[in-house]
Design goal:
With 158 residues, the chain is of the alpha+beta class. The chain has one domain. A 4-stranded antiparallel β-sheet has the order 1-2-3-4. The radius of gyration is 16 Å and the shape is globular.
Length: 158
């Protein structure tokens, strides 16, 4: 049952991530934005060749793309290992790992397809902007918070 739930969670993340990115590509021209909640939330169509939060975005190239693809693959293998080792009595921890896996896979699809990750969620308070992100990034963040909670506060050993 643990593996069915994990596969289902990861598949749902990938499907939602790719669907939302497809909708952005189809309906929002590159570098344009649409205000959703004035002063707080926009949809914006950008491509991020770098890592999380745009780290290394200015240094583009084949080597960098290959590096990020390699990092994603290693991370996904590590997540699968941790998922397998997670005791069945911690279903929320398993779900957190599945969220991370699904998010990593969603962004990996972009990197393999176009060499960059499509970001479109722009959260800001007036002129203070958080870097744009996507559904995959959100899943990774929520999954990491769950993982950190279990490791730091529940003292779960995997």
């Amino acid at each position: 049952m643990k593996y069915i739930m994990g596969a289902g969670t990861a598949t749902l993340v990938v499907a939602l991530d790719q669907l939302t990115k497809w909708l952005v590509i189809r309906h929002l021209p590159f570098y344009s934005e649409k205000t959703i909640i004035p002063g707080f939330l926009n949809l914006i169509h950008i491509h991020n060749p770098g890592g999380a939060f745009g780290i290394f975005a200015k240094n583009q190239g084949t080597l960098q793309s290959l590096m990020f693809i390699g990092i994603a693959l290693v991370a996904m293998i590590l997540i699968l290992y941790l998922y397998k080792k997670t005791p069945a009595e911690y279903p929320l921890l398993s779900m957190g790992l599945a969220l991370i896996f699904g998010g990593a896979f969603g962004n990996l699809i972009d990197r393999l397809r176009i060499g960059k990750v499509i970001d479109f969620i722009d959260v800001h308070i007036r002129t203070l902007h958080w870097p744009a992100f996507n559904v995959a990034d959100s899943a990774i963040t929520v999954g990491m918070l769950i993982f950190a909670f279990y490791i730091l506060f529940r003292k779960v050993e995997i």
